[in-house]
Specification:
By secondary structure, the protein is mainly alpha-helical. Helices cover about 65% and strands about 0% of the residues. The protein contains 14 helices and no strands.
């Protein structure tokens, strides 16, 4: 008797053929989980349709009308977009927003990388991470009011301290040259901790043996940071930069509380300009057109940023 015959199990204890049930021997039906999947996705899809898709479609429609909140909208075609091209205030708002984005993203990214590197290389303290997150948890309106009081030219603690040291008082929010850097500094204080924690989480994914090998080869902290940490952190850094870019273009709360677009339009960012056109001047159709253009600009900038940073690729094998 051959070896294969000797090792084969008797028919009565042999299992059912693949794809067949034990009793009937009929082919087993593949389980269809599509209904359950759609059931679980339904709340998210309904929320997306009600709060994102529908407002977007309606906003695009209003951008093609002369809607003013007081009377029914009349279709005007591309008139709002034609007006937008020659609107100096729109272009100024876009330029002011770009200036803020550069200040805000630059300061947040540099400080966030510095704090994340310190936590990664020096300490793993949970208390320190919690402290960094506290400013991010404070509402933006509260942050704006807090710093407006602290930096007030007459009653602010910071100006009293500067005056006592012999530097005199400074109108941080009332000076055209200082207003926007001050707003950027306030938001940097509020969001740097959150940015640092995201980058720190990315640094934890870098294998520790790479640092140990580099250290044995005599590499210093700066060389390990530039040659190991930064290249392997690129996907997370790309995510942080994209989120920071979108959030920076949407700056509104701090401006509305502190400067209200002044002085002399020095802080009239694009979001505040949209708000003024819609709810102060009642030009809802024109405000919708500006919002559509802003969405397109953000989409293009995000795509370019993701492409340049190669966000979908990682050097980590």
């Amino acid at each position: 008797m051959g070896a294969d015959t000797a090792l084969a199990p008797p028919p009565e204890i042999a299992g059912p053929a693949p794809g067949r049930t034990a009793r009937s021997g009929k082919p087993r039906r593949a389980r269809d989980d599509r209904k359950a999947a759609w059931l679980f996705l339904a709340p998210a899809l309904i929320g997306f349709a009600l709060f994102y898709a529908y407002p977007t479609i309606r906003g695009i429609y209003y951008s093609l009308t002369d809607y003013n909140l007081l009377s029914p909208p009349n279709f005007t075609g591309a008139d709002n977009y034609s007006k937008l091209i020659g609107d100096d205030q729109f272009w100024n708002a876009l330029k002011v927003t770009g200036y803020y984005v550069v200040l805000n993203i630059g300061s947040q990214t540099v400080l966030g990388l510095f704090l994340a590197t310190l936590m990664h290389r020096l300490t793993k303290s949970v208390a320190l991470r919690a402290m960094l997150l506290v400013p991010w948890l404070v509402p933006n309106v509260t942050v704006g009011l807090l710093w407006m009081w602290l930096l007030d030219a007459n009653l602010g603690f910071v100006n009293h301290l500067l005056d006592a040291l012999g530097f005199g008082t400074t109108g941080f929010f009332t000076s055209p040259g200082l207003a926007m850097p001050t707003v950027a500094a306030v938001n940097t204080w509020a969001y740097t901790g959150y940015t640092a924690l995201l980058l720190y989480a990315g640094m934890l994914q870098v294998p520790q043996h790479l640092y140990e090998s580099a250290s044995l080869d005599g590499a210093g902290e700066w060389r390990m940071f530039t040659k190991i940490t930064l290249p392997l952190l690129r996907p997370v850094l790309a995510l942080v930069l994209v989120v920071s870019l979108i959030g920076s273009f949407q700056i509104f709360d701090t401006i509305a509380v502190t400067t209200k677009g002044g002085p002399v339009s020095a802080t009239r960012v694009i979001y505040f300009y949209i708000y003024e056109q819609a709810f102060t001047n009642f030009h809802m159709g024109y405000a919708s057109a500006v919002a559509v253009v802003l969405a397109v600009v953000l989409g293009v900038l995000t795509a370019v940023q993701m492409r340049l940073l190669r966000a979908s690729r990682s050097d980590l094998a």
